[in-house]
Amino acid sequence: MPVITCIEDLKRLHRKRTPKMFWDYCESGSYTEQTFRENTSDFSLLRFRQRVARDLSGRVLDSTMAGTKVTMPVALAPVGSTGMQHPDGEIHAARAAAKFGVPFTLSTMSICSIEDVAAASPDPFWFQLYVMKDEDFVDSAIERARKANCSALVLTLDLQILGQRHKDLKNGLTSPPRPTIPNLINMAMKPRWTWNMARTPRRQFRNIVGHVKNVTSLADLTAWANEQFDPKLDWAKVARIRDQWKGKFILKGVLDPEDAKMAADAGADAVIVSNHGGRQLDGALSSIRMLPSVVRAVGDQTEVWLDSGIRSGQDVLKALSLGAKGTMIGRAYIHGLGAMGEAGVTTALEVIRKEMDITMALCGERDVKNMGRHNLLIPQDFEGNWA
Ligand SMILES: Cc1cc2nc3c(=O)[nH]c(=O)nc-3n(C[C@H](O)[C@H](O)[C@H](O)COP(=O)(O)O)c2cc1C
Hints:
Layout: H1 7-17, H2 20-26, H3 34-41, E1 47-48, E2 63-65, E3 68-70, E4 74-76, H4 82-85, H5 89-100, E5 105-106, H6 114-120, E6 126-129, H7 135-147, E7 152-156, H8 166-171, H9 181-188, H10 191-199, H11 218-228, H12 235-245, E8 249-254, H13 257-265, E9 270-273, H14 287-298, E10 303-306, H15 313-321, E11 326-329, H16 331-362, E12 376-377
Parallel strand pairs: 4-11, 5-6, 6-7, 7-8, 8-9, 9-10, 10-11
Antiparallel strand pairs: 1-12, 2-3
Helix pairs in contact: 1-16, 5-16, 13-14, 15-16
Flavin mononucleotide (FMN) is lined by residues 25-26, 39, 77-80, 107, 109, 128, 156, 252, 274, 276-277, 279, 307-310, 329-332.
């Protein structure tokens, strides 16, 4: 068993153990991948202030996110096709999150269904909704999430139109993979994945198959999914979905302060500053650079969280210091999952917690809720002077 000390170690194992098309699906951004790269590299522009000779005993990482108690302010982001990174991936991730005391968010485009995860997870989880043209599907997904006791609805706003990732097109990505010769050869080289995948019945988008009229085959499903994202989603529709759901309502994929104001006015319990991990609008600024302006715009009205680019507990602390109340991680836990299933997700969370604890202490803080701008050295041009 290799010694895992950082998310990078899990990433290497994930790559080794997962078929190429799903590794590429995870580890890519749209077009030139500029935003994907800068999401991570921009964190390194921020530095911590080292403080000494302070009482650092009894340190606390607990917090709350939209009223949910969390053992650290880090939730697992919705990631489509998680069950292709590791067989039954959503179930493994939900269990690891529940045991650790952080929220798990199930994507609309998951392999395991809402009902599969509800039956396997010891705690309520959050459900992420994509608004589809098929209104019956949207209504029934909301109803199914309510029945499954999901404790928040996360509505994603930045994918009305699909961004293009070159690798997915070149790989001919589908879930499950088509039995082409290159795919069969690649799967034969990943025996653990292939063996476990053969033993689970969960190999296609189970939130959709069986819940949408006339979608029974892989071809039907691919055609349905590609043309279903609703380009007409607007703030009126957001308000309708909020009224329909009634519970905790989180808006994800907001990068601009003006949109953040609309999201706060729409009654969001939290707004997630996110560019979908660099998978949608290439050329947009990184989430961490946009965070301060969103906090200034709506930080006194609603909770502001950040995702996109977090690869360590240090990144989490930088986001909190700039005013985020919580964070979400995507690839950081998917690397753990692809490496070692549930145990790998737990390891990813442990790595992040340890990095947060040590870094917070070396910054002279005992409670994560006290982290603030006073803990950072921020370059003068960090937000940029854009015309
Ligand atoms: C492989 C992959 C699939 C994703 N699928 C979804 C999805 O189904 N719904 C959604 O709202 N966001 C989705 N996202 C975006 C994540 O929720 C999150 O915003 C992103 O991963 C954060 O960036 P990070 O991976 O750098 O942490 C996906 C991200 C990845 C990497």
